[in-house]
TrEMBL record:
One Pfam family named in its UniProt record: DUF6699
The species this protein was found in: Psilocybe cf. subviscida
Identification of the protein by name: DUF6699 domain-containing protein
Occurrences of domain DUF6699 (ranges): 76-209
Alphabetical list of InterPro entries matching this protein: DUF6699
Length: 222
């Protein structure tokens, strides 16, 4: 019978756990490294065009990217504690065709996702060299980021109240699997994850494009 201990664990290795059938083949697209410097040239615009220059992949500051329709408010149903293959839209799983569509209009080769309640961001790159960021790249990057282990030093920076809420979120996450003792124990031993820093607000709502930074979005959760 699973233990009811409330001990918070901090694992030394990041683990991505798939509790049921094999997940969709999403390739990891998150990177903590600084994105490579991008060099390119644009023709000098005429006076009437100074505010209308944009590149197909490297958008100018005058261009605001439009998120894919799946990232609009309540367009998909997703608990961020679960892998992307569990996402549904109108009670149907997402098609491979839609997952391969550009994540933005116009397409881009880099995105940064900001989480207002977190001290870190998510960097998204294409999984295919020279291609644009796809819908699946965004979903996979978000999931992988939230499966990153929390360091004890990060936990220590929280207030006492937030530590209690984060610990409760961690316990709730692995206790969901108590029907399978093996999966329950594996998830518990894997330790606290960044998704627990959301303190129970794990429902994906939408991605909002920044009006000041064309490559930056904000993740809205509930």
């Amino acid at each position: 019978m699973p233990s009811r201990s409330k001990t918070v664990r901090f694992a030394h290795e990041n683990t991505i756990y798939y509790p049921s059938p094999a997940p969709l083949a999403f390739a990891s697209s998150i990177s903590t490294a600084t994105p490579p410097t991008r060099t390119y040239s644009l023709p000098v615009p005429r006076a009437s065009q100074k505010h209308h220059v944009a590149h197909i992949h490297h958008q100018s500051h005058a261009t605001i990217s439009v998120p894919h329709r799946y990232f609009a408010p309540s367009s998909i149903s997703w608990d961020l504690r679960d892998r992307p293959s569990t996402i549904t839209r109108y009670q149907h799983h997402l098609s491979s065709h839609a997952l391969n569509e550009p994540a933005t209009s116009p397409p881009t080769d880099f995105l940064r996702i900001i989480i207002p309640s977190a001290p870190w961001s998510i960097k998204v790159y294409p999984t295919t060299h020279g291609a644009y960021v796809r819908v699946s790249d965004v979903l996979d990057a978000i999931y992988t980021a939230f499966r990153t282990n929390v360091r004890s030093s990060e936990f220590a920076q929280l207030s006492s109240r937030d530590q209690s809420s984060t610990s409760a979120a961690y316990q709730e996450r692995y206790r969901r699997l108590r029907a399978s003792p093996q999966h329950y124990d594996e998830e518990k031993r894997a330790g606290m994850k960044r998704v627990d820093f959301l303190m129970g607000q794990t429902r994906f709502v939408q991605l909002v494009a920044s009006t000041r930074h064309p490559d930056q979005w904000t993740l809205v959760i509930s």
